[in-house]
Amino acid sequence: MKIGYARVSTARQGQSLDTQREALVGAGCDAGHLYSDTISGTKWQRPGLTQALDYMRPGDTLVVTRLDRLGRNLRETVTTIADLAERDINVQVLDPALDTSRPADKVVVNVMASLAEWERELLVERTREGVAHARAQGRIAGPNPKLSDEQARQARQLIDSGESIASVARSFNVSRQTIYRALERPSLTA
Questions:
Q1: Is 9 labeled as catalytic in the residue annotation?
Q2: pLDDT tens sequence across 174-183
Q3: Can you give the three-state secondary structure of the chain, one letter per residue?
Q4: pTM for this model (two decimals)
């Protein structure tokens, strides 16, 4: 029997669970035995995958749309595939088409898992470098301030003239914390 597993990191992710489920059913998976998780691939606990693996019996095939659906990293992916092989369970990946029931594909799966992990590590490193570069230039990651510098100056003047923080926050339709953050800006404290 073919058992399907789908995973997305967030509900907004490009390849939705519905899209993955359709692909899994199209690949011959039993629609009643599709398991899924909406959780980051970096998380250890994936209840949907655990349920799928617990359900599977010798001779079954676990079908996933992409190899990175199976594990957080190369070791976990390869370990999952090896554990399934010991239980006489194959893994089929739809994109690219791979099936561990074919000996040549076992090698390809291991190489692709290595490349996927390497790509993820590169992405994390590039993100860290980008954040460090932005900080070095005085930029801070996160959303833009809700109050412009001019609004922050107006808020400062109102507070200096005796208005309460809560009153000023209401007049600008923001939280008190937003007012506090605006007042702490270097351009206003100088």
A1: yes
A2: 999 999 988 8
A3: CEEEEEEECCCCCCCCHHHHHHHHHHCCCCHHHEEEEECCCCCCCCHHHHHHHHHCCCCCEEEECCHHHCCCCHHHHHHHHHHHHHCCCEEEECCCCEECCCHHHHHHHHHHHHHHHHHHHHHHHHHHHHHHHHHHCCCCCCCCCCCCHHHHHHHHHHHHCCCCHHHHHHHHCCCHHHHHHHHCCHHHHC
A4: 0.56
